[in-house]
Every structure is written in C-alpha cells, then in structure tokens.
Hints:
By secondary structure, the chain is an alpha/beta fold. The protein folds into two domains: 2-164 and 214-241, Rossmann fold, CATH 3.40.50; 181-212 and 244-281 and 296-311, Alpha-Beta Complex (UDP-galactose 4-epimerase, domain 1), CATH 3.90.25. The chain has helices at 11-22, 71-76, 78-98, 132-151, 181-190, 216-232, 249-259, 284-290, 298-311; strands at 2-6, 26-31, 42-45, 61-64, 103-109, 120-121, 154-160, 162-164, 195-198, 210-211, 213-215, 236-241, 247-248, 266-269, 278-281. The model has no long low-confidence stretch (mean pLDDT 91).
Amino acid sequence: MKVLVTGAGGYIGSAVCKLLKNNQHDVVGIDHRPIRHQYVDKTQLTEYGNIYHEMFDGVDCVVHIGATSLVGPSVTDPATYYQNNIAQTLNLLDSMRGNSINKIVFASSAACYGEPEEDVCAENMPHTPCNPYGWSKRMMEIILNDYAHAYDLRSVSLRFFNVAGADPEGEYGQEPGATHIIAKAIERTMAGKDFTLFGKNFDTPDGTCVRDYVHVEDVARGVLNSIELLETTGNAHVFNLGGKRGYSNLEIINTINKMTPLQVDLKYGDPRPGDPSTLVADATGANTVLGWSTTHDLDSIIRTAYQWYQINTDTQA
C-alpha cells in the first residue's frame, strides 16, 4: 500500500515511517522540516495544508500526524492551533476527497478528555477538553465522524497518551525540551540539575501522580494496525493508545535511577491546580478491535530514551 504521512520527520512520524517501510509499504513523507531518515520514497517540505496534487498519486491512505501540539502555547495563541490543526486539516481532507482517497489515520490526543471525572479514560465517557489544543483534536474527531457519514471517508482517530521512549536502534527519539516527566527528568539530570515533582500527597500508593506512558514504537504499531483495519472496515473509529497500566511519578524516578547510570536529584513542589491523581487509558477497544497491545514496559521506555539522549549529548534542560 502507498501511504502519505504528514509530520513524517518528527518524533512519532519517524517511528511510523520506519515501521510502514519495514512492513513493505511505500511511504510519501510530508513535513515543514527536512526529513532526515531514509524511510520515505518521496518527500515534500511544506505545510500539510498545501500539498501538491502530484503527492497524492497512487496514495491509498493518509496518516495525519503533523500538528501544532503544545498545550501551554495553545492557550496564549489559539489562532495558530485552530488554523494549523483544524483549517489545514480540512484542506487536507478536501484534497483527499478530490483525489479519491478515502482512508485516514488521525493522530488525536488524550487531551480530548480534559479533566475527566474518572481515573480510567474510556473513549465513550463524557469529556470536555480544557485547552485549545485538546479542542482542536476533539473537533477533528467530530469532523471525521461527519465526513464518514456524508462522504464515506473511513477514519481511525488514535488518542495518544504520553508517548515516550526512543528507537532501540538509535535512529530517532524526542528532541530536547519535551514536556513529560521521563524526558525532563533525564534531560535535567544529564545537565547536572535537580528535578522537581509537583505534589506528594495524592490518593495513590506512593502519593505521587499516576499517568499512562506508551512507547513510540507501540504507537507506530497502533497506526499500522489502524491502516489494516481501514482496509476492511468503514465509518469513523476512535481508540485510546495507552499502556497496560499507569506509572507513578516516583516510580518513574526510581526506574531512571535503576535503568541508567543517572541518579535524579529529586525535589518536591506544590501540586499543580487541576492535576488529577490518576489518569490512564482504557485500551480495550484498541486491544480487541485493532489487535493492539503494548510491547514495551517502563524499563524499556526509560532505557531507550536514555540511550537516545546519550547520542544527543548537547541536551540543555
């Protein structure tokens, strides 16, 4: 199959392109930055809303990962997020329709859940995003559902939880400055700085927040399985991609200390407003419908992340 991947040069996009190529798919890569890996047959440096018509030649499915994706800046500059994540995605969908492409895998986010009332997030639970980034992802899920009914555009929206880890072969990983605890704790410790956990009196076994982390390779496999699902199934689907269990912040710090030569200089700060004690994915849908489950545990996530940061030793935290 020929697959067009937007955001092909990014962290998740690189993992997806490598897995697709290794599974005998032809890959067309779109990004606004140079694509440094070799897992694309054809590339274009452009915003994904301005894809040249010839890039769609022979394409069977689109994997749409390209997006503006930081929560904080989405609050101060919502126009950029709605323009990039909604308006340009609508342009992409219209281009797909004009080129008779009826299958898309959409990178959604756990940010769709906002601050859920339940600790375990199921796809059908009531949820309200609490920032423009989350709303941009949720709005596109709604749009894809409408497009499925009106235009027979098949889609799978994958709600990624905290994507972490790196390619075990060292070919890709997160850029410095990632926002989740695994990346920040490793970066700051490698830079000789202390690391602060926010809150130690949550209603959890060790008092620190519990969150859901999933290895980037497992996320890529979720994309691959979604493409296969769209070959045989119509409509618009939404699935969580999260781990088999959540990990507490303190558990993550202890695992960094165990799995790497690093010893985190740990400090505690006040809890952040609105932080739930536990937030993990119910991945039953992905398990049963996609045939997907995680293959990397926390040890593997942290080991591969650290190996990647060793390669990129100019990390500044």
